Amino acid sequence: MSDSIEIISWNVNGIRAVANKDALKWIDERDTDILCLQEIKALEDQIPQNLFDKKYLERYVNSADKKGYSGTATYTTLATGRTSTCPEIDLLNEGRIVETHFDDIVLFNVYFPNGQKDEDRLNYKMEFYDRFLAHCEALREDGKSIIICGDVNTAHKEIDLKNPKANSKTSGFLPIERAWIDKLLDNGYIDTFRYVNGDEIDRYSWWSYRFSARVKNVGWRIDYFFISEDLAENLEDAFILDYIEGSDHCPVGIRITI
Known about the structure:
Elements: E1 4-11, H1 15-20, H2 25-28, E2 34-38, E3 58-62, E4 72-76, E5 83-84, E6 97-102, E7 105-111, H3 119-141, E8 145-151, H4 175-186, E9 189-191, H5 192-197, E10 206-207, H6 213-216, E11 219-220, E12 223-228, E13 235-240, E14 252-257
Parallel strand pairs: 1-2, 7-8
Antiparallel strand pairs: 1-14, 2-4, 3-4, 5-6, 6-7, 8-12, 9-12, 10-11, 13-14
């Protein structure tokens, strides 16, 4: 027997700040089975314990060593097997990955590095990308199916941001960064939003806080769900919840049969 489940991913840009705005209440009104949050900026004991009325069976938090920075958290109503924070990928202990196993499906909740600070940071981002893909491929060789969600910090195609030409030399839309997403797809992964929605335009998941960017919908699609191609027939829907506020990102999600 297989079940249809909903998985939501959201870069909350500070879980305590979002909780204080009551900007997480909408989750209690949805039938979301797995919730993946990025950039929580909190240690586990700083996260409100009864944050959701929905009774998530398990919670996995990976906080950065640096306080108030980065961090990921996965909430699930489904029982998990093995879990990991992937220290062999997240070399700087920035709390960037929660890996959870659901039988033969492995779900990655990832906050990929931003490369805009300087060249060293861009290099680290690209090395992180490569270590992560190698890890996923090793799991696939072991017979696992893969779901990847989170803030990838790169827009893939020109359709995925409002001003591609103006940002062609900006980290987040550099050729080397975009080429890694090409490589991911060439290795047998699917960009679920494009797979379901085709070339829909003006669909973004992040907007600058400056220049009324969100009101004008001057945004970037940098939050994704990728799945290994063996799960393509299981995919029922992929969506962007761009009406949900509380962060500079909005939630993205999929519905899939497992």
